[in-house]
TrEMBL record:
Keywords: Hydrolase, Metal-binding, Nuclease, Nucleus
Entry's localization field: Nucleus
Name of the protein: DDE Tnp4 domain-containing protein
Organism domain of life: Eukaryota
DDE Tnp4 domain sequence ranges: 112-194
Family to which the UniProt record says this protein belongs: Belongs to the HARBI1 family.
One family name in Pfam for this protein: DDE_Tnp_4
Domain DUF8040: 1-75
Length: 196
């Protein structure tokens, strides 16, 4: 089981139970919650495509796709992705131990930037997703700390959305649990972000 799904049998069944009880993943007409999760984990863990999953699990491409996305939607629940809780009162050790960075970056809490990842939206929504790349993308805002660890990511915006709009959405919406700078704290950003 570990070879196929990259987790122990106990953890697999615990994940299935959690997705079912807390996040509402339901059995399909002819497919159990366990098989849906197995399809998802196998595709993600093996880097497999839909056709490989059709052969492995003996379901149609539509069934594989639908159940993969059902599990993905539950697996990416917002409370599963939380900012890293290092104490903000402390200066990060990489900054403190380097005279090139300290004291200039003593109040630094992260770097923010956006990136575009190819997207496949519904045909009627296609134009909204085409941004500066010329093809449909999803505009993702990410925050890294000084150790290059991701501390925040927001992935739901269409490619045509401006970085400042995404950033302002993070500030206004408490649901995202975005780490707002306090006092002299700051993020390093490029010119696409507002200086407020």
């Amino acid at each position: 089981m570990y070879q196929s799904f990259h987790m122990s049998k106990t953890n697999f069944f615990a994940l299935c139970e959690l997705l079912e009880s807390k996040y509402g993943l339901e059995e399909g007409e002819r497919i159990s919650v366990q098989e849906q999760v197995a399809i998802f984990l196998w595709i993600v863990g093996q880097g497999a495509n839909n056709r490989n999953a059709q052969e492995r699990f003996q379901h149609s491409g539509e069934t594989i796709s639908r159940h993969f996305h059902n599990v993905l939607q539950n697996a990416m629940a917002i409370e599963w992705i939380k900012p890293w809780p290092w104490p903000r009162e402390e200066v990060h050790s990489k900054i403190l131990g380097n005279s090139k960075y300290y004291p200039h970056f003593a109040n630094y809490i992260g770097a923010i930037d956006g990136t575009h990842i190819k997207a496949h939206p519904e045909l009627e929504q296609l134009l909204r997703w085409i941004g500066r790349k010329g093809y449909p993308t999803q505009n993702i805002m990410a925050v890294c700390d000084f150790a290059m660890c991701f501390t925040f990511a927001l992935t739901r915006w269409e490619g045509s959305a401006h970085d400042a709009r995404i950033f302002n959405d993070c500030l206004r919406n408490p649901y995202f649990n975005f780490s707002v700078p306090r006092g002299d704290e700051f993020y390093l950003v490029d010119a696409e972000y507002p200086n407020t």
